[in-house]
Amino acid sequence: MGKNLTQQKRGKGSITYRSPSFNFIGDVKYRHIPLQKETGRVVDILHSTGHTAPIAKVVFGQEETLLIAPHGMRTGDFIEHGIEADVKEGNILALKNMPEGTTVFNIESKPGDGGKFVRSSGTFAKIQSKNGGLIQVMLPSQKVREFSPECRASVGVVAGSGRTEKPFLKAGRKWHRMDVRNKLYPSVSALAMNAVDHPFGGSRTSKKGKVTIARRDAPPGAKVGLIRPRRTGRK
Q1: How does pLDDT run across 74-131, given as a tens digit for each residue?
Q2: Buried/exposed code over 166-193 (b: 16+ C-beta within 10 A; e: otherwise)
Q3: Which superfamily is assigned to 6-16+182-227 in CATH?
Q4: Is the pTM of this model over 0.70?
């Protein structure tokens, strides 16, 4: 029999599991691509519940924008954005204008999307090579990914690198940290659930164990575990 699983409840989009985006300070991304070099002034360093890194409020002319703050940035600093910008900590320019070995963060997936990769506190990527019209960048996961030369990135390392060194100490603090970004916590094993909550749930403690292969005609609420595996058992 199919169960109403937690992931189905979350995927439905009810208000119980909706992300509290009204508490976030705004979109943190690059502005439009400038035709010439622009200089912006950092007017404030902000904290956002939706981000692990500090957020810098930067003023370009008459326009304010929110950007991921690099390590060492402070109020009153100036950053450059554009084609002729210097390869300097915090400056924003296209990958094709940076030399190999440069550490970068907040990399665009497509030119003009505002930045998608390497945005967590303390992270950075490194430009490895430029081959065949593409830029190869090593991400924090050590995976090498190719980007368009027109994709923009910020020079340096994301601020807030010591965040993971502070222990939570209590489960309550961990719950609040996860709740502010709509992360499911705590994570409960399927075998520890009741039979009404999960196909793997139900059974006495001394005999925990269920067949983890879903049958081919299983409804969505029972389609858990190995979904139509190609083979089972030992080789």
Answers
A1: 999 999 998 889 999 999 999 999 999 999 999 999 999 999 999 999 999 999 999 8
A2: eeeeeeeeeeeeeeeeeeeeeeeebeeb
A3: Ribosomal protein L2, domain 3 (4.10.950.10)
A4: yes
